[in-house]
Design a protein that fits this description.
By secondary structure, the protein is of the alpha+beta class. It has 2 domains: 286 residues, Beta-galactosidase, Chain A, domain 5 (Distorted Sandwich); 194 residues, no CATH class. It is built from 12 helices and 18 strands. Strand 14 and strand 15 form a beta hairpin. The longest helix is centred in the C-terminal third of the chain and has 27 residues.
């Protein structure tokens, strides 16, 4: 039974570590051990100025599909930059696209690889100076932009390929101001004029976008407003040391609920979403950050996720997700307005939940969402009291130890008794080495007499492993912990320890736990008991410092509890 207990323990722990390792590899841009390698990146990037995605077709409710328009090769274009306290947004007058969004409060950070550090040590070179820059969402390199425009089955209307004129106004949010507006006006297309008004507010990662549609023609028209997010699917971005846990479109509505769509599924035409609903939003998700078109007022809308046809200035692997809204039929001289909100910012869970129903779901917790969500809630409450994410993780371990004290104490008593019984069990195995059945019966008799559960020592691992893996995803996904310092050399809990001090301490504590545990009867298994902590400790070298801190704190508290129980039972 002892051998079975140890086998089960190591199988669970090994499988969990392999899953974490596989997740880490995928988070660092490497292919999963369990899936094919990702598609190669396209060879060349097209000029940014011409990167215009196709105009979506008119929704089915209006009849035949509208023609797809392309921007004239020499269409005039002016870049207008608006600055607030939390956003620096660039708007292209060609269609009124938002083509760049910088987040000055979220900076990039270096994360040199182990190889880079070793080379620097060997050659005695200092790392090159690094100047953090703001995180950028919409950008030309990835053909990532937010677009809106009009379509109609009756003919072309002003779209995101239509040149627009800027109305004079302020470009920077000044002290004492709460908001600024940017107004763009199109010329008439198909007898219809489109006026876009962008509203930027202090402290907000949202941009209000109002579409005023004016029928200046001689015939009635039924326009539709489309809102779409476009980006290149062959490149991914991430903060600090990580690449995104998921990069791609996401759709939420009352029928589909929340669904992420992989780029490769779009290529294979395997997009399974409800195309019409009365509410919902669309998003482009990446690690730590997201963009989304939000319209919270109930009203019929059509959703789409598609790969865009190749055009001049547009990569062949560019994708769009969006919504189409049908507006009332406008008589000549009539006008109407439609309002939407563009979110472009960090995945701060509490703030996302306030912006739109289900928007917090863009934060990817992987398979363990059911554990990760309450775990983050607890961490968030503790951080509100403590103010430091490192000490918050320590406090979390302490609370979990208190909650699981009875289970852990029972397991450690069982392990202490097993250690005390080790000489008798070894003697028994020696006497009955040729009679395995009788030996097993005698061992079970001894366990019953001494009230020892031979697999009781596995219970703490079984209880801790789901929490450990859920915390892994919380650390990977929580932007609040991005670049969060703890003490001294730990300046970012979301990336690995730069000097590997925490992993070494964790390895040492794991070896000390092996010494406290009862020795295995099989010599080979006993060697493995000492080798495995070293092997797994090396794997922890590349895990986030916050995760290693969690496991190290857990080890230290476990050692203290087991040491006290061993002393109480007189076990050395």
């Amino acid at each position: 039974m002892t051998d079975i207990r140890r086998t089960v323990l190591w199988v669970v722990f090994t499988a969990s570590l392999f899953l974490l390792w596989d997740g880490w590899q995928r988070h660092n841009g490497h292919p999963s051990m369990f899936s094919p390698a990702p598609r190669p990146v396209a060879a060349a990037s097209a000029p940014a100025g011409a990167a215009n995605a196709g105009v979506p077709a008119a929704a089915a409710s209006t009849g035949a599909a509208a023609p797809t328009a392309a921007a004239p090769a020499a269409a005039p274009s002016e870049k207008v930059t608006i600055r607030t306290d939390v956003l620096t947004v660039t708007v292209d007058t060609l269609g009124g696209d938002i083509v760049r969004a910088e987040l000055p409060k979220y900076l990039t950070s270096p994360d040199p690889t182990v190889t880079d550090q070793l080379l620097q040590m060997v050659h005695l070179k200092q790392p090159a100076p690094f100047t953090p820059e703001p995180v950028v969402l919409f950008n030309a390199a990835q053909h990532y932009r937010a677009q809106t425009g009009l379509v109609s089955a009756q003919g072309p209307l002003p779209a995101h390929t239509t040149p627009m004129t800027v109305v004079a106004g302020e470009r920077e949010l000044k002290d004492g101001q709460d908001e600024i507006k940017l107004r763009l006006e199109s010329a008439e297309v198909g007898g219809v004029k489109l006026v876009k008004t962008f509203t930027f507010k202090r402290g907000a990662y949202t941009v209000g976008v109002t579409h005023e549609v004016i029928n200046a023609g001689a015939a009635p028209v039924t326009p539709q407003v489309y809102l779409q997010l476009v980006r290149d699917g062959s490149t991914v971005t991430g903060g600090a040391a990580f690449t995104p846990s998921f990069t791609g479109p996401a759709v939420y509505n009352d029928k589909t609920k929340f669904k992420t769509i992989k780029f490769e599924d779009i290529d294979k035409n395997k997009v399974d979403i409800e195309k019409t609903a009365n509410d919902g939003w669309v998003s482009m998700v990446q690690h730590y950050f997201a963009s989304a078109w939000l319209v919270n007022e109930p009203g019929n809308r059509e959703f789409f996720v598609r790969k865009l046809p190749g055009q001049v200035g547009l990569r062949a692997d560019t994708y769009a997700t969006g919504m189409v809204f049908t507006l009332p039929t406008l008589a000549p001289g009539a006008s109407t307005t439609q309002s939407a909100t563009l979110f472009a910012g960090p995945q701060e869970e509490n703030n996302l939940a306030k912006l739109a129903p289900g928007l917090e779901r863009v934060k990817d917790y992987g398979m363990l969402t059911i554990i990760a969500e309450p775990l983050f809630w607890l961490l968030d409450k503790l951080h509100g009291l403590i103010g430091n994410w490192g000490w918050t993780i320590v406090a979390l371990v302490l609370l979990l130890k208190i909650a699981l004290y009875g289970l852990n104490a029972s397991a450690y008593r069982s392990m202490a008794k097993m250690k005390a019984l080790a000489p008798r069990i070894n003697d028994l195995k020696e006497r009955y080495k040729d009679k395995p059945q009788e030996m097993q019966q005698e061992m079970m008799r001894i366990y019953r007499e001494e009230k020892v559960n031979p697999i009781g020592g596995c219970l703490p691992i079984f209880a801790q492993m789901p929490i450990f893996m859920a915390l892994y995803w919380v650390l990977l996904s929580t932007v609040e912990m991005r670049q969060a310092p703890w003490i001294l050399w730990i300046t970012d809990l979301s990336v690995r320890d730069p000097y590997f001090i925490l992993p070494l301490l964790m390895m040492a504590s794991s070896l000390f736990q092996v010494w406290l545990n009862p020795p295995a009867a099989d010599p080979m298994q006993q060697k493995m008991m000492w080798i495995m902590p070293v092997a797994f400790g090396i794997m922890f070298f590349v895990f986030p410092a916050g995760l290693v801190l969690y496991w190290l704190t857990n080890n230290i508290l476990s050692i203290a509890q087991q040491w006290m129980i061993n002393k109480q039972l007189g076990v050395n």
